[in-house]
Amino acid sequence: MASKRCFGIFFFLLFLIIIGVTIICIIAKDGIKHQETYPFWQRTIVYQVYPRSFCDHDGDGTGDLQGILSKADYLKELGVGTVWLSPIFSSPMADFGYDVSNFTAVEPLFGTMDDFDALRAALHDRGEPAAGVGLRAEPSSDEHEWFVKSRRREEPYTDYYIWADPKGFDEAGQPIPPNNWLSVFRGSAWAWAEERQQFYFHQFLAKQPDLNYRNQRVREEMMQVLRFWLDRGADGFRVDAVKFLFEVEDINQNESIAIDPETDDPLDYYYLNHTLTINQPETLEVVREWRDILDQYSDRVMIGNEGTIDDDIASGDELLRQRQRFPLERLSPFNFLLIDRFHNRKRL
Ligand SMILES: [Ca+2]
Ligand SMILES: [Ca+2]
Questions:
Q1: Which residues make beta-bridge pairs with 90?
Q2: 200 pLDDT more than 80
Q3: Is residue 219 predicted with pLDDT exceeding 80?
């Protein structure tokens, strides 16, 4: 009788073990399936590397691509699956690489195109890591060939940038900018070009003229830049300053003074309410064009810089509402301020 009961308990336990193992196998298989199903940018930790400061390999005092390469094992140890590089393009470094003089060349301070290829290969060799490129599609440098030719009115570059006649001349004979638009870095967003006798628009430094994205040739040039890096094996782009791509077409409009300005300095960027120079609806057209190019390649990501998305939500920004309807796989947001807002449990 006792042995029959023991057998019963034994088979019951065996049954439970079989059920348990089956459930574990199903969960594990599902997990593996998810690992295989999700794209790399959803299943890996994305780690931003700022090349200037990350690791200096040749000892000249500035970080470089070979320095990052030398840390490939360290990055893997950290559990990093995707490395995204801040801009490595050729640059006079007026804004530490965010002023691009050639979108399809590596800045010599950081190394060579061979170094980029070697870094990408090293990251891929260590499993699934990928190398994304930080794209600063706006603005270029005033030392970019396009701007040098545009300033000379050399076709087809004449309208590659945003040029405007002065509104008039002051008593000292100095040209007056066409409107009150301000640079993010303070002061008028218009700089005078003696050679062309016109102002050009710059959202950031005067050495960073804004490209004219209303010019189809400019859009095609930038699409070629994307193709160049994708063909080179870049696994994606983080697109910086995307909300600054477009300004209103009619430059005869002044921006209004902020309702509750953070400053009483009329030359400070935050003195004005920026409705004419950021977040214009045409931005999404360009983002769609770029995403369509990425979709011609397999498993590539585009991350948009949306650093002030919470402010845009607060102001009921129409473009933001459009972006929220924009499928996430088209442009994944990069938004530390939004994360911070959640972290601090503030109400959105
Ligand atoms: Ca170096
Ligand atoms: Ca712009």
A1: 102
A2: yes
A3: yes
Residues with CB in 5 Å of ion ligand 1: 56, 58, 60, 62, 64
Residue 43's Cβ-count burial label (10 Å; 0-12, 13-18, 19+) is middle
- pLDDT tens across 108-125, in order? 999 999 999 999 999 988
Q: How far apart are CA 246 and CA 120, in angstroms?
A: 32
CA angle 310, 311, 313 (to 5 degrees): 65
Cα distance between residue 317 and residue 138, in whole Å: 21
Distance (Å) of CA 72 to CA 34, 67, 106: 26, 9, 20
- Strand pairing of 236-239 and 198-201? unpaired
Residue 270 CA, ligand 2 centroid: distance in Å: 18
Exposure string for 132-156, b = 16+ CB within 10 A, e = fewer: bbbbbbbbbbbbbebbeebbeeeee
Q: Which ligand is nearest to the CA of 66?
A: 1
Q: What is the pLDDT of residues 241-287, one digit of tens each?
A: 888 999 999 999 999 999 888 789 999 999 999 999 988 888 888 88
Q: What torsion, rounded to 10 degrees, do the Cα atoms 258, 260, 261, 262 define?
A: -150
DSSP tag of 210: P
